[in-house]
Design a protein that fits this description.
Strand content: 15-25%
Structural class: alpha+beta
Distance between the termini: 168 Å
Helix content: 25-40%
Oligomer: single chain
Length: about 280
């Protein structure tokens, strides 16, 4: 037997220097198998003496040759990117970063979640015990806030009242004078009239202009028209114009007084018609 065969490797698995021509994986497997065979031979030698049967050594060579044939048949292990890291035995947590993500691994099973503590069952106590005996601090509102709210309420009521009063006044004027505002009356002024045929007067607010029409003795053919002052201001187109008759200069003839809201214009009865009072002329209203 040659030196290669005595070393425990078949001639087909050894180089010229007596080293095996096998990959590391196959070499480790062969070494492990030879170690087991040597242990079996040692155990068998202890039972039968120090001699090792020839048949067992031949079987060992044949098994090695069969292993070589199986290595040729079995495909080699594919390369893998998995890496194994040996972690210290006392380390239970470690971190692993991949890209912008960070992973934290824990060794061992996850911790057991503890049950939340159970609250003791409520005890029924008297109703008075649920309230504190300390007096509650009342939140006080500043007087300026109350005053401001009161002023706003009063302002709103005043505006609403003014609107309501103005609407009611216009409604009453519509009922009495219509649109345009028209007022008419009869009076005895000495212009061919009498108790049986008084003169008829109409006062109009026609587009903010005061127009007075006189029918002496009720005769339309002798009608006279007098114009009064223009009315200025907002809403004056709906102002009613009224008439009254009174002797204001003491000549014994009734004069005509034109009333527009709180103003009064005097028309003097002179020579069968009415004229505006001259400046400085004494009149008694």
């Amino acid at each position: 037997m040659s030196a290669r065969e005595q070393s425990g490797y078949p001639a087909s698995l050894q180089t010229g220097q007596g080293q095996p021509m096998l990959p590391r994986r196959q070499l480790a497997a062969e070494q492990e198998r030879l170690r087991r065979l040597q242990q079996q031979g040692y155990r068998a030698g202890r039972g039968q003496g120090s001699r090792q049967p020839r048949q067992q050594q031949i079987n060992t060579d044949e098994e090695i040759a069969n292993e070589e044939e199986y290595d040729d048949v079995w495909p080699a292990r594919l390369p893998t990117s998995t890496r194994r890291y040996t972690m210290p035995a006392d380390q239970t947590t470690w971190e692993y970063t991949q890209g912008n993500r960070k992973y934290i691994f824990h060794q061992g099973p996850p911790p057991v979640r503890q049950a939340p503590p159970q609250m003791p069952p409520p005890t029924h106590q008297p109703r008075q015990a649920a309230y504190s005996e300390e007096p509650r601090a009342r939140s006080r509102v500043h007087w300026m806030l109350i005053f401001g709210i009161g002023m706003l309420v009063m302002l709103a009521l005043w505006a609403l009242g003014s609107m309501l009063l103005h609407w009611w006044s216009q409604t009453q004027d519509d009922w009495h004078y219509g649109r345009p505002r028209t007022y008419q009356t009869d009076a005895i002024v000495g212009h061919n009239d009498g108790s049986t045929n008084p003169s008829h007067f109409l006062a109009l607010n026609l587009n903010r202009h005061v127009v007075i029409i006189e029918l002496p003795g009720g005769d339309p053919s002798k009608a006279k028209i007098y114009t009064g002052p223009p009315l200025l201001g907002d809403g004056q187109d709906l102002t009613a114009v009224t008439l009254s008759f009174k002797d204001v200069n003491g000549d014994g003839l009734p004069d005509m007084l034109v009333h527009v809201q709180d103003q009064t214009f005097v028309m003097i009865n002179d020579h069968g018609q009415f004229r505006p009072a001259r400046p400085g002329e004494q009149v008694t209203l």
